[in-house]
Amino acid sequence: MACPHHADLAPQRGGISKLKALASKGKGRAVLEVLAAMQGVSVLHVNASMTAFGKATHWQACMELFFSLPELKATPDVVTYSAAISACQKGGQWQLPLELFERAEQTISPDVVLFGAALGACEVGAQWQSTLRLLQYMQTTRISPNNISYKAAIGACGRTENWQVAVHLFREMPRTAITPNVIIYNTTITAAEKAGMWPWALALFDEIKAVNLQPNIISYSATISALARPGHWQLALHFSEDLKRAQLSPNVYSYGAVINACEKAAEWQVALALLREAENVAPNTVAYNAAISACAKAGHWQHGLALFTRMAQAQLNRDVYSYNAAISACERAGSSEMAMTLLDSMASETITPTAISYNATISACEKDSSWQQALTLFFGLCGLLPAIAPTIVSYGSAISACASGAH
User: Fold this and answer.
1) d(C-alpha 296, C-alpha 276), whole Å
2) H or E element in which residue 103 lies
3) pTM of the predicted model, to two decimals?
């Protein structure tokens, strides 16, 4: 004879499985119909559906279900609110999650998971001040923050280049009896990188090993990116080699970062060698853009344009940075015709030119003594939709073009 308790749970489990399957496919209307047909909707059914919506990044469907709870006569609990906020966060939302958090406070007691979801949304929106308020609120409610809480707060600070606050939060963790994990270190290194504080990034990387943690591929990539900004290509290359010695597999981000460092120093030959390595892993647009720019800066514009052509052959999406790098290569060579061709072809790939695109093309015209073409481009800037305001570089190139043509 079956246990009555298990018998009662069987339909519930079956219903949950069906709802999760529908929600994972984003079928919001079907989920609502199944729930409406049930005799007494359990909050477990709702939470399972909302969590599945969130995991599949169907945040709008998740919110439609949330706002339908009164009609379904289901009362949201802390899991419901956490699922709703997490779904919105994965959808790149931050304002709605904070509104949901405020709404939750009125009826339930937030737990560490709900705080973590709200903090994660703040990180997505780079709302660093809100993360600080939430951390302080956690302390007043005697809920201990964890690594997830601090990761979100430090990440939000990093996105807005508030590296001092990020480092302060990082150093505060041991005082609250929390031991930073490698994810926290990586997030703090990234905050230092975005603020251009490469010495801090190096110090934090060394500290990972000092506290007996193992740096991972993200640790290396973030540190190499920090070194790329000021063009410390040799040190970046050392980290790239150390990454392999640590038996970690370089990825598109680590290769892109070290090639970018070479680009800053115009080390085009090293950049090309690294790009060949990267192609064996997975060719990517960022790595190609940096290599093209490195060739252009070193005056090897033919190599740069050859790479630009190879991107199409490798079926890589060329973006505005790809075109700007290629046009800059033409500008170095003084080839106004090629620069103009590239500028015109941006439209065919539905890429909107920037001031850099036009400045480099105007400069190419100036070096090629095509002063009329330079002036046509210059005066046409304001007539573009959207209009591009001429910069000091635009004026300088246009004036030089006129001077070279004795106009």
Assistant:
1) 18
2) helix 95-105
3) 0.80
